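Quick one, T. Sequence first:
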Amino acid sequence: MRYCFIRFPGGKSKALTLSYDDGCIHDRKLIETLNRYNIKTTLNVNSGFMAHQGDEWHLTAEELGKLAESGGHEIAVHGAHHIAPGKASAVNGIADILDCRRDLERAYGKIIRGMAYPDTGITAMTAGVSKKQIKTYIKSLGIVYSRTLGADNDSFSLPEDWFEWIPTAHHINPMLMTYLDKFLNAEPRNNYIAHQNSQLFYLWGHSFEYENNKNWDLLEEFCKKAGNRDDIWYATNIEIYDYVEAFRSLRFSVDNNLVYNPSLFTVWFTEDSELFSIKPGQTLKIS
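Structure tokens:
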């Protein structure tokens, strides 16, 4: 029996991704800080609230686009009007997500596939719809993942369900730096062969919380410790999704001596602690 584990680009066993909501003016300082440490985030945007004349709190679509491009960040759906799908009818939930996706794609000329649930998302179900129904309709709207909330933990695991993607921690979590130290100090390759899985740290929040709480130093501390490291892959949410799905698409022979990569990504993985990489379209013989 062989144990096979994903490794991130370059053979790395750790990845870091962030997710920040609402597209407000404080994203300027957030992005400036992240860019200095080569950390990537996904910016979850309410298209119906993007700045218009007289709005001094939200960013314009143009400025959001420039901020995203400055560090290779992702723009994702957050509902046109920030409606919690668990508290809305299916019709209203669908309309809010579809309108947001359409608006963002028109604004940026890109296919938008990611999302963070607005407000209480799928943690409070009061409108007679189920989690299963919501996940089904957002998938049908072309969304491939959606971040949820409410279960901070230090497992650093990849999501089993892309439509209920649980982050590691909100940045106000008092255990944040403890979690980060555990993540940074972990050496999966030193674990027992069956426990050498890769690890993902996922931080989320709102940039205005740093401003309201006057604790931008927390972001600086986090980034200084977590950023600019050779052993971490820094990626957006959609980059994590695409790469993990490429790994999951690998096709192995019955005896695990051959593997085929049908994806468009070079994929890294270990087989019984030995590191391999396989190019798009390649069939690789594993000795």
